Amino acid sequence: MKHNNFNSKNENIGRDSLLEQRNNPKPVLNIIGYKYYELGLFDSNDKRITILKDFLQEKLITYIEEGYEWFITHGSIGIELFAVEVLIELKRLGYHLNIAIIEPFIQQPKDELNDWQIRRNKVIEQVEYHNYIYKKRYEGPWMLKGANLFMMEHSSASLIFYDESSNSNLKYYYNALVDYSSNHVYNILRVSFDELNDFISFNYDN
Asked: Which structural domains are found in the chain, ordered by start?
């Protein structure tokens, strides 16, 4: 794994740019989505994860073919982790792409890792870039707001799996995306549960 620094206005993260959006002619896609418990997925071997990943693969191949070469995400356990796993597999199949997991802050270390955390650590070892926006422990909601803005500033679009009918903190991220896109040339690619259900109905018997 490469350990290049990531350029940012935020002094907490390095200045030598791996993903300098302003000088990068290729679009960068930021991936956002529900955490595993918001999807009712408490077992890391739940068979529904395979269906979710098939759905994400169809989406991501479309964006790769449209010219996206860098995919960035906070890497939360859930949609974001599944998307990175799909991208890693697509790289193995010959698709040209790069992946960056950029966490908002340094997590408190666990005495014992659960299956989800072990799975996530394995993924981190396989991406081109991993770093933290704030190189310290969580101090307050302002960190999440700043981290989300960082991701918007370093991408040209966000793919967000979000349904307004759900009770999720993703609504704050989505609202921030809407505000940001009103003042910048920026695309919001939103995916809803209806779209997922249509995919399931079309591709699976049950």
From this structure: 32-203 (3.40.50.450)
